[in-house]
Specification:
The protein is an alpha+beta fold. Helix content is 17%, strand content 40%. A five-stranded antiparallel β-sheet has the order 1-12-9-8-2. Strands 3-7-6-11-10 form a five-stranded mixed barrel. Strand 6 and strand 7 form a beta hairpin. The protein is globular, with a radius of gyration of 18 Å. Residues 132-237 form the SecDF P1 head subdomain domain.
């Protein structure tokens, strides 16, 4: 799984300007990779799953409210948030969260997914502190099976270091489904899920042809570059 030390922020794009960036040969990454799972799925912002939660809240879990502009206007919804215990891994936190989540009723075709909750630490850097819920609806639009290429763009060293970016290209079928889905869900959110975690939930502003997604890594150092290399190799299905 991609390391928690460099979280990903995904931005849908037709293309990424190569200015100031170079393609990084991920063959230099000898840390070892394995294939990762990826799916793009529509987010259900119409159903509120926690108006009357079932059962006692697990330790560290609270119900929160968020207000945002969605396709149908201003929406206020509940979500569940779990604060991780000191030293608790993502896998351990999800294991503690999952039994309670599975008891919450959802309409047919919906499912929960979790994503990171981050806050600034003492040095001003963003740091993950827990997990929160989202509701997905329908089948995946595209998955890692539709990926035909994934490459890394990094700073060329001639200016302030930029975040490394993973450019993902889908096959013809995936690109067409992606274009059609973004046409049908303008002003709605879609989730980009990597290894079972929602990494980004952008609002579709307009139909997106071209079958490409750019994944900007959080971080500006060699560790972020290494994480980008591992993700790109994993999406291509390369395992050491």
């Amino acid at each position: 799984m991609v390391s928690a030390r460099a979280r990903m922020m995904l931005i849908l794009a037709l293309a990424l300007s190569p200015s100031g960036c170079v393609k990084k040969d991920d063959a230099v990454d000898r840390s070892g990779t394995r294939p990762v799972t990826m799916e793009v799925v529509v987010v259900d912002d119409d159903f509120d799953p926690f108006t009357e939660p079932v059962g006692a809240l697990p330790d560290g879990v609270s119900i929160r409210l968020e207000t945002a502009i969605r396709a149908r206007g201003l929406v206020t919804q509940h979500y569940a948030m779990l604060v991780k215990k000191p030293g608790e891994t993502d896998a351990q936190a999800k294991e503690r969260f999952s039994p309670w989540l599975s008891a919450q009723p959802l309409p047919a075709g919906r499912r929960f997914i979790v994503g990171d909750v981050v806050e600034e630490n003492e040095t001003g850097e963003l740091s993950p502190i827990g997990l929160r819920t989202y509701v997905l609806t329908g089948e995946a639009i595209v998955t890692q099976a539709n990926v035909i290429d994934a490459s890394v763009l990094v700073d060329d060293g001639k200016g302030p270091m930029r975040q490394p970016v993973v450019m993902v290209t889908f096959d013809a079928a995936g690109g067409e489904r992606f274009h059609e889905a973004t046409r049908e869900h303008v002003k709605e959110r879609i989730a980009i899920v990597v290894d079972g975690k929602a990494m980004s939930l952008p609002v579709v502003q307009s139909p997106i042809p071209g079958g490409r997604v750019s994944i900007s890594m959080q971080g500006y150092d060699e560790q972020a570059v290494a994480e980008a290399q591992r993700l790109a190799a994993g999406l291509r299905g390369k395992a050491k």
